[in-house]
TrEMBL record:
Oligomeric form and interacting partners: Homodimer.
Protein name in UniProt: PLP-dependent aminotransferase family protein
Swiss-Prot/TrEMBL cofactor(s): pyridoxal 5'-phosphate
Recorded family membership: Belongs to the class-I pyridoxal-phosphate-dependent aminotransferase family.
Residues forming coiled coils: none
UniProt domain Aminotransferase class I/classII large: residue ranges: 66-406
Origin species: Gulosibacter chungangensis
Higher taxonomy: Bacteria, Bacillati, Actinomycetota, Actinomycetes, Micrococcales
UniProt GO BP: alpha-amino acid metabolic process
Length: 417
């Protein structure tokens, strides 16, 4: 079995700490420790300013709101909340999800078109399970979400990056990638895209580019998986309407409550064309029987009994202030570098001088009490050594400033060597 270099149970000298090692399925070779996850232990030490993870600032959510929703939920729906539910998720929640999607231009869908999941990571896993045979091609942005890359690898997909510019996916590159894969006799199963405030780059696909990408995918018969956990968290202008708002047959739309409510509730959703939806429900049932009834009812009560739109505005204000603090600090302390200016979401993407390796530099950074996410984790093909993702979602503006100052010391120190 192929062995990952990050598999801690297998030693190169032949010493094998896991007695079951030889029994694992071949696809587990794709299950490697994510660089982001490995960072969590270091970055969570209180003295370290972590610009690494992508955790939302849940403290901006008044506890009282959740307490009230929880109490009401147990009073009104306690018996159902403690019971198994259906594989598609509870209909009352699916109806409220329609209100959320309508904000991004998705109208005309019905609650029956929606499937709830255990976060959108679960949805990514289910969709990959439904479509990918080993070697099938998945196209995605350059760079892209580390968690999706991990899932795709675990199903032995042939993951291929498509270049982006400041308007999102490059159309010629996308077309060329589709044709190249087909010329090699490969099945192109879907395009995975994060059009709003992309993780890790913060880039947003323009309205015109969405139309063009969709038209190309319709012409070429390629399904689009539109992953949109950050869309409502814009800072200045709302993002253009979802790609799904333009077409209901070629787009599988993924949403999540992780960033606008709480990742701890683990509730996400998929809006899918009819045939795929039926398969998705079967896939949910075969993997977890049904998503958590308790958590779905909690989210439903939250949506029905509180001003969730105002709460999203509060989150947006907080993140906007932190984005501004991050950009100002970069200008002040690292003016020689370049970075993206996100109009929403949690991240900016920094280009380092070619001579630097962000992964190798990380131990030095953590010694200086700052953490970031090295660029390489966001590429399936080993690129990204001279990039890093900085997250501004969790630290306060003062801590962001301190973190960037420390980072500047590290970077300038490396350049002097
Ligand atoms: N997609 C993207 C682009 C993400 O950034 C994340 C979380 N960081 C997810 C999906 C997974 O989110 P969830 O908590 O809903 O599983």
């Amino acid at each position: 079995m192929p062995v990952s270099s990050q598999d801690s149970t297998h030693q190169p000298g032949g010493l094998n700490l896991d007695p079951w090692y030889d029994n694992y399925a071949r696809r587990t070779a794709g299950l490697t420790v994510s660089e982001v996850r490995a960072l969590f232990a270091v970055a969570s030490r209180p003295e370290v300013v972590s610009l690494a993870g992508g955790s939302p600032f849940v403290s901006a959510l008044p506890e009282e709101l959740i307490h009230r929703a929880f109490k009401r939920m147990m009073k009104e729906h306690g018996a159902e909340a403690l019971q198994y539910g259906g594989g598609q998720g509870i209909v009352q929640l699916r109806e409220r999800i329609l209100d959320l999607m309508a904000i991004e231009g998705i109208t005309g869908a019905s609650a029956d078109d929606v499937v709830t999941t255990t976060g959108s990571q679960h949805a990514i896993d289910l969709v990959t399970k439904l479509f990918i045979n080993p070697g099938d091609v998945i196209l995605l942005e350059t760079p892209s979400y580390v968690g999706a890359l991990g899932t795709f690898k675990s199903y032995e997909a042939d993951v291929r990056h498509v270049d982006m510019d400041e308007e999102g996916l490059n159309l010629e590159a996308l077309e060329a990638a589709i044709h190249k894969a087909r010329a090699e006799g490969k099945a192109v199963k879907f395009l995975y895209t994060i059009p709003n405030f992309n993780n890790p780059t913060g880039v947003t696909m323009s309205a015109a580019r969405r139309r063009e990408v969709l038209d190309l995918c319709i012409r070429e018969d390629v399904l689009i998986v539109e992953d949109n956990p950050y869309g409502l968290l814009y800072f200045d202008e709302p993002a253009p309407n979802a790609i799904r708002s333009l077409d209901e047959d070629h787009v599988l739309y993924l949403g999540s409550f992780s960033k606008i409510l709480s990742p701890g509730v683990r509730v996400g959703y998929v809006l899918a064309p009819h045939g795929i939806r039926e398969k998705l429900i079967l896939a949910v049932e075969s993997s977890i029987l049904s998503p958590s009834s308790l958590n779905q009812w909690l989210v439903t009560e939250y949506l029905e009994g509180s001003d969730w739109r105002a709460q999203i505005d509060t989150f947006r204000g907080t993140y906007r202030e932190r984005r501004d603090a991050m950009l100002l600090a970069l200008e002040e302390y690292l003016p020689q570098l370049s970075w993206t200016v996100p109009n929403g979401g949690f991240f900016t993407w920094v280009q380092l001088p070619q001579s630097l390796d962000s992964k190798q530099m990380l131990p030095r950074a953590t010694k200086e009490l700052v953490a970031y996410t090295p660029g390489t984790g966001f590429y399936a093909d080993g690129r990204g050594h001279d990039k890093m993702r900085l997250s501004f979602s969790l630290p306060t503006p003062e801590r962001i400033r301190l973190g960037v100052r420390r980072l500047a010391n590290v970077i300038n120190g490396e350049l002097e060597i």
